[in-house]
Amino acid sequence: MAIPITVLDCDLLLYGRGHRTLDRFKLDDVTDEYLMSMYGFPRQFIYYLVELLGANLSRPTQRSRAISPETQVLAALGFYTSGSFQTRMGDAIGISQASMSRCVANVTEALVERASQFIRFPADEASIQALKDEFYGLAGMPGVMGVVDCIHVAIKAPNAEDLSYVNRKGLHSLNCLMVCDIRGTLMTVETNWPGSLQDCAVLQQSSLSSQFEAGMHKDSWLVGDSSFFLRTWLMTPLHIPETPAEYRYNMAHSATHSVIEKTFRTLCSRFRCLDGSKGALQYSPEKSSHIILACCVLHNISLEHGMDVWSSPMTVPMEQPPEEEYEHMESLDLEADRIRQELMLTHFS
Question: What Pfam family is a match for this entry (predicted)?
Answer without folding.
Answer: DDE_Tnp_4
